[in-house]
Amino acid sequence: GKWHMGVNCKSRCDHCHHPLNHGFDYFYGMPFTLLNECQGTDDPELAKSLQDTYWLYTQMIILAVLTLLIGKLTGLFSVKWKIIICLAICGLLYFIFWFSSYGFTKYWNCILMRNHDITEQPMNLEKTTSNMLREAISFIERNKHRPFLLFVSLLHVHTPLITTEKFQGRSRHGLYGDNVEEMDWMVGRLLDVIDKEGLKNTTFIYFASDHGGSLEAHRGNAQLGGWNGIYKG
Question: What superkingdom heads the lineage (predicted)?
Answer without folding.
Answer: Eukaryota
